[in-house]
# Entry
Amino acid sequence: MTTDTQTTIKSQEDVGYETTKFALGVGIFMAALVGLWGTVCILSALTNGGPLNVLKSYLTAIIG
# Structure
């Protein structure tokens, strides 16, 4: 004789933790994109104008 049994498993997720983890992941990804874009821009300026011209332009922008 066999008996069929049915079990239920209840799982609780912490929504606040999952939301925070997702938001942190998105924030890190966006920060990496901004950093990569800034690096590409600086490398582009260095190749087009040279390091001394970039430094001169930077000081001109700061000092006036």
About this structure: DSSP finds two helices and no strands in the chain. The two ends are 93 Å apart (CA to CA). Residues 15 and 21 are 10 Å apart (CA to CA).
